[in-house]
Amino acid sequence: MNTSNPNANNTIVNLRDVRFRWKRTSDLVLDIETLEISKGEKVFIKGPSGSGKSTLLNLMAGVLVSEAGQVNVNGSALDKLSGAKRDHFRANNIGFIFQMFNLIPYLSVLENVTLPLDFSANRKKSFPSAKEVRTDAIRLLSNLGISEDMLKRPVTDLSIGQQQRVAAARAMIGAPPLLIADEPTSSLDYNTRESFIKLLFSECEQSDITLVFVSHDGSLEKLFDRSIELSSINKASSNANTEVAA
Ligand code: ADP
Ligand code: MG
Fold first, then answer.
1. Radius of gyration of the chain (CA)
2. pLDDT digit string (tens) for 57-95?
3. How far is CA 52 from CA 49, 58, 133, 222, in A?
4. Distance from Cα 44 to the centre of ligand 2, integer Å
5. From 20, 44, 45, 55, mutation site for ligand 1 pocket: most ligand atoms within 8 A of C-beta
6. Burial profile 61-88: b = 16 or more Cβ within 10 angstroms, e = fewer
7. CB 12: neighbour CB atoms within 10 A?
8. Residue 215 · residue 43 · CB < 8 Å
9. Model confidence at 223: pLDDT above 80
10. What average pLDDT does the chain have?
């Protein structure tokens, strides 16, 4: 291995001495000395509601910026990029599955899934034309259990479980290097949760996507390569205004 090239190593997420607070006068929400995630890992991060899980994911995605420390994701130092460059970085590198899905209600299933490609040349480049985009969207949706006859349906016609699968397909189209999932199973029942996670895993493995998945629900952690209790890496955890998990 060429050790002089910092991108040649196997690390995709590298946080060092990262501190974050919402306001200059408020307590630290995150104070993390080190967090390293390797390419291809499927990592579970758990913590109760209010412990800073979403804040951490938004730092990794370059939505939020730390007040100190280094946030390195896929070879980019996010703490050193302008807002516009971080937006560009996120479009090219990150698939995000939100707790509430955030699907666009007036678009069809297919239009929702292919939307990220309009914002990312990198994610679009493996598709020579709209035909291949459609074929891959159908492949992804079918792997996630959504049949082709649903493609033209408005997403609002779908069940919650189906909407969550569409949100997952949208996050994974064009194989972004990092998939971030923020409590994506909290509206699914237990059996559906486990099968949904297994579908995510198989697509991540097939497309070389690293998965960072957060939840307050510790019953899911056994499925993952590694599980991290957020309070064990976050020195600010005693400040956190943690509530009882929903
Ligand atoms: P989790 O995702 O683990 O439930 P969050 O990262 O959402 O936790 O929240 C961590 C802490 O930051 C909580 O105390 C929460 O109240 C606070 N917080 C979250 N979002 C904001 C915001 N936009 N402005 C101010 N405080 C916030
Ligand atoms: Mg959250």
1. 18
2. 999 999 999 999 999 999 999 999 999 999 999 999 999
3. 8, 10, 36, 22
4. 14
5. 55
6. bbbbebeebebbbbebebbebeeeebeb
7. 22
8. no
9. yes
10. 92
| CB of 22 closer than 6 angstroms to any ligand 1 atom | yes
pLDDT score, position 4: 47
Q: What is the mean pLDDT of residues 135-164?
A: 93
**Stated length of the chain:** 246
Structure confidence at residue 241 as a pLDDT band (50, 70, 90)? low
Q: What pLDDT is stored for residue 191 in this prediction?
A: 79
| Straight-line distance from the first to the last Cα atom of the chain, in angstroms, rounded to the nearest whole number | 46
**Single pTM value for the model:** 0.92
Substitution site in 23, 25, 51, 229 for ligand 1 pocket (most atoms within 8 Å of beta carbon)? 51
For the Cβ of 50 lying below 6 angstroms from any atom of ligand 1, the answer is: yes
Q: How far is CA 85 from the centre of its chain?
A: 19
The answer to whether 230 and 182 have CB atoms below 8 angstroms apart is no
